[in-house]
Amino acid sequence: MADFLVYLAAVLAGGAFLLALFRFLRGPSPVDRVVAFDVLTVIAITGIILAAVVADRVIYLDVALVYALLSFLGVIVVARYLERGA
Amino acid sequence: MGPLFDILGGLVLVAGTAFLLLGGLGLNRMPDVFNRIQAGTKATTLGTILTLTGIAMMHPDWALKLLLIGMFLLFSNPLSSQVLARAAERTHVHKTSRTRIDRFEQDHDQGEEA
Amino acid sequence: MSTLTLLMAVLAAVAMLGGAAVAVASKSTPVAILAAGLVSLMASVLFVLLAAPDVAMTEAAIGSGLTTFLFFFVLGRVKEEQDDD
């Protein structure tokens, strides 16, 4: 039962990933793409954690931790560049 | 932990990823950048926190690391959403025609007149 | 490799292809840099799925974090010099 729920969660996260990827590919403004990139990063963190549960390895969580630290740095750098460039 | 906690954690996990899916849906359905920022950051923050809680219920010995990840996300998501909204406002992106009121623009105009 | 891991790997690979296509096709430089960052993000997820968490951590820190940061820093400096002329 619990395994099934993990699989269902992975499928839902995959759907969210595809939707966010669609927005990233379509644009239209650069800020749209940055928002989509942010969402993709958060969903990637969820995906890594689900992979950690499926493989039953704690060490994968460290990668997710590095992501949580770095993703927001990237978004802020891009946003600062965009608002200065206008 | 017992099998009851496993299933309970799994249900919370599914609820969290459902919120992620709703966030992705909002990212595609919302009419302009500002609405998309709301869907993209608020829904996904709730979704990730619920996901982390669910997994902490399934694996109580991982709870500390999951708590750390959740704290970083709670710090970074509102910050990035605010910075993105400011960048969108300053680059004058297209607003939806259904925008009723823009307090920021009103304040800005009054400031220039004074 | 379980079926679920395989599906996640396929999804990451599709995202890498999409990001690479945007990086090549886009006319705006910031969007191209962001797309390159997406490619490296997904490469790192792929490394996790291939059971190499240390490689994934390095890729996340260097490829996705530092490279994007460096590109935008340099882009800002180039723009400043162009504005001075």
Automatic annotation (TrEMBL), chain A:
The keyword Cell inner membrane does not apply. Keywords: Cell membrane, Membrane, Transmembrane, Transmembrane helix, Transport. InterPro entries: MrpF/PhaF-like (IPR007208). The chain crosses the membrane at residues 6-25, 34-53, 59-82. Its main location: membrane. One of its GO terms (molecular function) is sodium:proton antiporter activity. It is a multi-pass membrane protein. GO terms for cellular component: plasma membrane. The keyword Nucleotide-binding does not apply. Pfam families: MrpF_PhaF. It is found in: Cell membrane. Belongs to the CPA3 antiporters (TC 2.A.63) subunit F family. This is Cation:proton antiporter. It comes from Profundibacter amoris.
